[in-house]
Amino acid sequence: MLDLSSAVAPALSLISVSKRFGATQALEDVDLAIGRGEVVALMGANGAGKSTLAKIAAGVSRPDSGRIIVSGRELRLASPQAARTAGIVVVHQSTEQLGVPGLTVAENLVLDALCGGGAGALVSQRRIARQARRIAASIGFDGPLDQDFGVLGPAHRQLVAIARAVAAEAPMLILDEPTASLSAPEADRLFAVVDRLRARGVGVLYISHRLGDIRRIADRIVVLRNGRLVAGQAKRFDFTAAVRAMIGRNLNDAAARVADAGLASEIVLRMAGVRLIPGAAGFDLAVRAGEVVAMTGALGSGKSRLLRALFGIESLEGGSIELDGAPWRPISPADSIARGVFMAAEDRWRSSFLPAATPGGDIAGTIALPHRRSWFPSGLLREGRERDTADTIIRSLGVRCRGPQDTLDLLSGGNQQKVVIGRWQSAPCRLLLLDEPFQGIDVGARRDIVDAIRADRRDGATLIATSDVEEAIEAADVVAVMHGHSIVGLHDLRTNSGESLIAAIAALETMEPDKERETAA
Amino acid sequence: MTNEVRTQAASSRVPFAVDAFGRALRRYAIFIILAALVVFFHQAEPAFLHVNNLFSVLQSVAVVALLAVGVTVTLAVDGFDLSVGSIAAFSLMLSSYAMVVLQLGAPATVAFALMTGAAIGLVNGLLIVGLRIPDLLATLGMMFLLAGLQLIPSAGRSITTGLILSDGSVARGAFDPVFLAIGRYQLFGVAPLPVVVVAVIAVVFWFLMERTRWGRVFYAVGGNETAAYLAGAPVKAYRVAAYVISGVLAALGGVFVAARVGRGDVFAGSSLLLDSVAASLIGFAVLDQRRANVIGAVTGAIFVGVVLNGLTMLNVPYYTQDFVKGAVLVGALALTFGIGRGRR
Question: How many alpha carbons lie under 13 Å from residue A81 in its C-beta half-sphere?
Answer without folding.
Answer: 3
